Fold these 3 entries.
Entry 1:
Amino acid sequence: MEGARDAEREKFLAQAIDTMSALTRDLAAAGSYPFRERGLGRARMNLLYQLSRRGSLGVGALAALLDVTPGAVSQHVDHLRQAGLVTVDVDPLDARARIVALTDQARAEVDEFQRGWIDAIAPRFDALSIDDVLELRRLLSLVRPADRSRR
């Protein structure tokens, strides 16, 4: 009986992943993302994404989130600062540390993109009630991030 339940779980999981893949394809087909014209690599885009979602962060916190060294973060931050996308300030709690934040211009671009992204995808969720959306959010929060150590 256990094997049949495992097979059924796998079938339903595959269906859920298919739905998530369709959403991802819809987003990719739109071809729009912030800072596109700047030709930023994945690492720099991920850094900007973390700042957009979490606000100002220290270099060490960014390194932990991105699973890279603080030195790598500093190199990316230098490039992004020169591009006018981030600011770097002294941490008021530790003068040796630096706090990185999006510039007002970068924040506006991210906000505009996110509004467009939500507007484009939201209709796919019209059949869900607020309770359904809350349950979806709860369930997605249980999905573990990829184990980067296996790469």
Note: Residues 39 and 52 are 18 Å apart (CA to CA).
Entry 2:
Amino acid sequence: MYFKEPLSVVNVANSLVKADAGKYFLGESEFLNVGRMNLAWTGLINPYNSGVNLYLDIFVSSNMSPENMLAKIWFCSIVPPTGKISPKVTSANLAYQPKPIPRGQIQSGEGVNPAISAGTAVSTRLILASTTVTSEKHGHWIIGPGTCILFSYVSQGTNNAHAVMAFGWWEECVHQL
């Protein structure tokens, strides 16, 4: 009988590979003031001329108030015409100098947005007071140029709720068929 050493198997997460290549980005939205009658929204936006697809890896929604919030996730085929672009976005690989610049954007705003009206609601979630909800998509949600994934929020209480949203994604060049 021969004794063989066992093979070593290493499972490397795709997000680690993308971060090592300087293609993984993360950031958070501006602070959202969510009213009962005032819709607030935020999202991961892929501009029309980006030349890349965005692969959503993770999103984290934090409700920092004593009021529950109702959140809806929308797949949108148009980019919001208005919205504040968050400056709080960076490469996940701090070793790169200069740092890679993401083409994807995190935007947020208040009120009904035409992109939401034209989008498809794909999920509704209740975010309880003073909680954080995390969802890992591992790149299964792909945002092409000129499209976005938006999250709309409405307070379920009598007072305004306060939220912030964080995203992690990687970017790959769009390949022409």
Note: The first strand starts at residue 24 and ends at 28.
Entry 3:
Amino acid sequence: MTVRPETVPARNMTSDFKNAFGGHPAGVAIITADSGTGPVGITASSVASVSAEPAIFAFSLAAQTGSAAAIAVADSVMVHLLSADDLHLAKIFASPVTERFTNTMDWTALETGEPLLRHGGYALRAKILTRTQAGNSLLLAAQVLEVIAPASPGAPLVYHQRNYHGLAGHTILPSQ
């Protein structure tokens, strides 16, 4: 018998919605693009697989200023799926005041122009297919053109309850 929780009327839809998804872990990624005047990038937890054939993913941009505005109009992007060892990068690209793409950061521009961070996870080079306004966010769908795999992928970096966590392999629950 399945026990269903009681439906409670939303007290504050925005707050309740944030609390609901705050308790739902999400993978952490950095999205980078060439703005035409230089590289830009942001930390995101909204990247989701949409289709395997063709390989398509989606992500959203809550802000449409600064780096997010440049990514919103880019023709192509790099999505860096971060490992727990990449926490420092997640923090740098999440901060509105931290300087990015410095001489001390390990990155390069691909021949196609997108900035590629050298890090512990996968990187996906993709072309933007669609842009859809969704509330106060912009939802983008992108088709993968190239997958750059790490030599040895580490534990994924996830965001949960407003904090970063490493997801270790030993936490897998047994099937019932």
Note: The first strand starts at residue 26 and ends at 27.
